[in-house]
Here is the input.
Amino acid sequence: MKNVLIGLQVVTAIAVAFLFYKTYSTPAHQHSKLSPSNPAGQAGIKIGYFELDSLENQYVYMKEMRNALRTKEAGLNQKLSSIKNQYVSLLKEYNQNGPSLSQSEQSTYQQKLAKLQNDYQVAEAEGQQEMQGEGLRKMQDVKAKIQVYLKQYCEAKGFSFVFASNDADFLYYKDTAYNVTNDIIAELNAQHNKEKSK
Here is the structure.
């Protein structure tokens, strides 16, 4: 899950970099509105931010995606636990009956144990790979929904930039007047509930 959150932060940083690029790649004549006496220009650049931690904890769709991943992870852990229990049971049986077993019976036990050990390793590797892939897909879907909404929100409210902020970012000062977290969470949850009720 930690990797998924890091991935989400990286994707958010890329989106911010893209927004900077799009804003500052305009032709020079369009920047002529700026002057030393009015560094922000007549129109001004409106910047907002939202608390990523709050969004992660309060956006219902994101919580549903995390819960789905946890459920899938629990299923994987149950499957692995079942294989491990079979292995431990068979090993215990082999150790108890070992001295009285014939050579061919010992060989059969060893083959079964090796197969169970291999089954465990394969199931664990496949499960982890599937979990990472699904986690990435789900978080990209969440990110896409947030981006689509933020585009509409920024156009409607006149924001040039909206940053995702968390404890690990490099924003040392944030004026809470520009915190749009509650607006974003409320609208994203309303959109999700509307989609869910269809």
